[in-house]
Amino acid sequence: MHSKTDSCRASGILLHITSLPGPYGIGTLGREAHAFLDFLYAAKQSYWQVLPVGPTGYGNSPYQSYSTFAGNPLLIDPECLVTDGLLSDADLSAFRAAFSGAAECFSLQKPARFRLLRQAFHRFNAQDAAFRAFCDTHAAWLDDYALFMAIKDAEADRPWQEWPTALRLHEPAALETFAVAHADDVAFYRFLQYLFAKQWQALKEAAHAKGIRIIGDLPIYVAEDSADTWSHPSLFALNSDRRAAYVGGCPPDAFTADGQRWGNPCYQWENHVRSGFSWWLHRLGRQFALFDAIRLDHFRGLESYWRIPANAETAREGAWAKAPGRDLFAAVRASLGDVPILAEDLGFLTPEVLAMREALGLPGMKVLQFAFTPDEDSLYLPHHITENSVIYTGTHDNDTVLGWLAKAPAAERDFAVRYMHLTEDEGYAWGCIRTVMTSVARLAVLPMQDVLELGAEARMNTPGTAEGNWTWRMRSGAATAALAERLAEWVRMTGRAADAGEGTVPMS
Q1: Residue 348: is its pLDDT beyond 90?
Q2: Cα separation of 207 and 48, whole Å?
Q3: Where are the beta strands (DSSP E) in 132-274?
C-alpha cells in the first residue's frame, strides 16, 4: 500500500466474467475466458479488471453476494466438467439448448445450471485427496457457507432472519443435526467451491503465463442475507432480531435528491477493532489469494460512512459516522504487507478522506466522464490528474462513453469534444481512449464496451435501478485481431507496455 517513484505505466481492460460470450446464458471461466486472455496479450494489456466474483443473490448484482469469501457457482464452465469426466456431451447438449446464447438468462441460470452441477457432483469421488485438502484449507469460511446455502435450499430460499430460531441463531447443536440430515447437500456446496477454485486457478495461471494480472473488486459492505452476517452477527449493525439496524449508502447530492440507500448493514466497528480486525484480515487475505490486486469499493466509507436507519425509506435520514480506516490499514500492512489496493474514491470526499488515501499511498480513480462540467475546474480533467492514479473512460456504473456523449447536456458535450479534440474520423469512443491512454496516470483501464464503440445499450449497471442490470454480453467474435492491434499501437505510443509478469503493479 505504498506509492512507487518509478515511471512504470500500464493499461488494462474492464470486462466482467459474465459478459464473456458463449452458449451458456452468461460467461464462464472456460474457453472464452482463456480466449479473452489471448486478446489481452495481443493487445499488449497488462491487466484484466473484473467485478466481484462472489455468489450473486438479489437482483443478480455482484455487489449483493451470499458470501464475501465464496466464488459464484454460475461461473463454473460446463465444458471443463466434460473434460474432467464429470459430465457427458449429451448432458451438455441438453443444457445448452435451454439458453441459445441469450443474455437474459439469469432467471434460468440457477435452477438449470444447478441441475447440471448436481449431475457432476453425483459422479464425483468425494474422497478425492485434492477436494479434501481444499475443504480443510478453507474450513474457516467454507463450512459456514456450505451450511448456509444448504439451509437456504431447505427453507425455500428465505432470508436467514426467517429461519427456525435455532438455525437462525447459529446454535451448534442445531447446525450439527442439520448437517447430518443434509450431508449430501452440504457436501454439494463444498464441491461447487472446489470446482470454482480449480477453474479460477487455471485461468489465473494462464493469465500470469501471458504477463497479465487480474484486478478484483471488493465491495465495502456485505449483503444482509449472507453467510457473513449469519455466522458473525456481532460484526454488523443488527437489531435484536438480527435484521439490519443501520444500512449503508450516500447522502443526497446534485445527482440524487434522496441520496442512495444500499440496504447493506453497516459494520459494528468497535467489535472489529476489539478483534484486531481479524475478519477483515481473513477477508482481504482471501481476496489476494484470488486476485493480483483489488479495487476497494467506496474507500471513503472506511474514514467515515453514511449511516442510515434501516427503517428510513431514503438516505435523507442518514448521518456521518467515523470508521477506523487508518487502524484497519495498519493491521492489513502488519499482516499482509504492502498489498496492491486501488481506492475507489469517487463521490463526496472530505480533506480527511484524501489525507488518509495520501498517507497510505493508495492510487485513486479518475473517471473521464466526470471531468467536463463546464462551470467548474474539475479534478477529473486530465491536466489535473497525478501519476499515482488509475484513469478510466468509465466504470460499470457509468454509461458507455458514446451513451454518455449522446445524453450529456450540450455545454458538457461541447466542452468534452473541444477538450479531447474528438472527431468523427477517429471515432468519439477512440478519442476518449486516446485521452485516457496519453494521460500521466500510471494505469489506464478501458471498459470493453468503449473499446468496441458501443452505445447505451451496452451499459452494465444504472445505480438506483433494480431492473435491466448486469446482463450485457460481448458478441462472439467481437474481440478481433484488428482491434487488438489498434489497442497495442496505443500501448506502444504511450509507453504502457509494462511487464506485469515481473510483478510490477503500477497502481501500488
Answers
A1: no
A2: 9
A3: 213-218, 246-250, 260-265
Res 262: pLDDT: 92
Three-state helix/strand/coil letters over 292-314: CEEEECCHHHHCEEEEEECCCCC
Mean pLDDT of 429-449: 98
CB 459 within 8 A of CB 472: yes
Give me the amino acid identity at 34.
Answer: H
E strand or H helix that includes residue 366: strand 364-367
The pLDDT score that the predictor gives to residue 60 is 87
List, by residue number, the catalytic residues.
297, 344, 397
Residue 74's alpha-carbon distances to 25, 99, 148, 164, in angstroms, are 10, 14, 17, 28
Sheet holding 246-250, edge to edge: 260-265, 246-250, 304-309, 319-322
CA 457/CA 460 separation, integer angstroms: 9
Q: Rounded to whole angstroms, how far apart are CA atoms 469 and 460?
A: 6
355-378 residue pLDDT tens: 999 999 999 999 999 999 888 788
Integer Cα distance of 211 and 112 in angstroms: 36
- β-strand 213-218 against 260-265: which pairing, if any? unpaired
Cβ-in-10-Å burial (0-12, 13-18, 19+) of 5 comes to: exposed
As given in the structure block, the three cell numbers for residue 259 are 441520496
Q: Which of 435, 443, 441 is nearest to 385 (CA)?
A: 441
Instruction: Give the three cell numbers for residue 68.
Output: 464475501
Question: Is the pTM here over 0.90, yes or no?
Answer: yes
Side chain identity at 460, as an amino acid letter?
A: M
Distance between CA atoms of 267 and 218, rounded to whole angstroms?
15
The predicted-structure confidence for 11-67, as pLDDT tens digits, reads as follows 999 999 999 999 888 999 999 999 999 999 999 999 999 999 999 987 789 999 999
